[in-house]
């Protein structure tokens, strides 16, 4: 027992000596943060180039590697952090908000006894959004919809503060383009630009697409609006066209086909609306069905009129967000007296 205690004591003492040695060694070595942190806008509507230089003085690093820890606020309203040995990085930002970037120096290797040393200070750049533009003239409710995974349409609403005779323009950029391009086909209503259609100029999927909507007016430039998205996350399917209703003595069998378009059937989820009308009035209910399912069985009350309609959307396992399609035309029983859902 005494021998075991002596061994434990000796091991503990050796561990303390090693820890004290590393702490003494590392505490005597410091590193400064990088310098000349610069943000450059190459005209890609929110994708900025970040560059920096090593600190003025570094310890003898012949036996150590120098890396950098870059932290920045993303356009998704969260912070990101990366470590790199390079001195340049490209990231996407929301130019309608403050852009914040900070960077540390990291040192590790034999010279630090294989301990990572991080500069206690950091170099930071804060870039304010552009202040140009008539106040309150940003567009409202900007969104893009990838219809049937075939073409994209972006729409927006004008602010009430936009002066008459204003001219709005939409620009877009993605990594397949050398520079930002203007909307290929505008959509107008009453002489006012309200959207842009990308039909003959398809947008790529699984790629960040940056948009900038700006313009001019007799009172000066309009406030710009920036957005960034991936279109496969903004799909709206076509309405389901083919519904089949089979009746039995005590139940209905409803079947339908996937809507037209390029959306894979296994990526779709459905919602069925059932309306029944009888002597006691009219009632409606909806039922959600898991991905890929295209049929539903229900018990019936033969004394009531029953109508069904279906809509679909891309489920969460295929897209982070999506839009419900329009409702299909209803099918009813008895078919001679349809009670169309409102």
From TrEMBL:
MF annotations from Gene Ontology: cytokine receptor activity
Keyword rRNA-binding: no
Subcellular location: Membrane
Segments forming domain Fibronectin type-III: 239-339
PROSITE patterns: FN3
Keyword annotations of the record: Glycoprotein, Membrane, Receptor, Signal, Transmembrane, Transmembrane helix
Membrane topology, record value: Single-pass type I membrane protein
Signal sequence region: 1-26
One protein family per Pfam: IL6Ra-bind
GO CC terms in record: external side of plasma membrane
Keyword flag Nucleotide-binding: no
Name of the protein in question: Interleukin-13 receptor subunit alpha-2 isoform X2
Organism: Pundamilia nyererei
